[in-house]
Design goal:
This protein is mostly helical and 139 residues long. Helix content is 68%, strand content 0%. It has a single domain, classed as de novo design (two linked rop proteins). It is built from 4 helices and no strands. α1 packs antiparallel against α4 and α2 packs antiparallel against α3.
């Protein structure tokens, strides 16, 4: 993993814009809990913010960490959208497209995080023994 693909960054930014608009819409609903819309706004816009930070990561570890944070934020956003829908605080047709998009972002980020943890080993590297014992030690 080097940098987030440009198309994905654009998609995450578009999602953040939609979350900002949803936040404004939710706040116009009488008696809508402001704390929920605020949490949705924070987590939904944080996905792209972390991907932007990943673009200037100082190391592969830093890049992977940014992707992991973006994944956690995407999961949290998905949670808030599901909670709003389950409690009928907002119309389902308003939430469904964003819930689907959050789910797709989660899938993409999950794959990216999973792949960042897999390192290719060269022949002769690594251990073929349990507990990391090397072949040079005979017991």
């Amino acid at each position: 993993m080097t940098q987030p693909p440009e198309a994905f960054v654009v998609r995450a930014f578009a999602f953040a814009c939609k979350i900002v608009h949803l936040h404004a819409t939710l706040n116009r609903i009488p008696r809508f809990p402001f704390s929920i819309s605020r949490q949705l706004l924070r987590s939904g816009t944080s996905i792209d913010a972390n991907l932007e930070e990943a673009r200037s990561a100082s190391s592969r570890r830093d890049l992977a960490a940014r992707f992991e944070v973006a994944l956690r934020e995407a999961r949290e956003t998905h949670y808030w959208l599901r909670l709003i829908a389950a409690t009928s605080l907002a119309p389902a047709d308003l939430l469904a497209p964003l819930t689907r998009e959050a789910n797709e972002l989660i899938s993409i980020l999950h794959t990216s995080v999973k792949n960042s943890g897999q390192r290719k080993q060269l022949p002769g590297q690594g251990s073929q023994f349990p507990c990391g014992r090397s072949s040079e030690f005979q017991f």
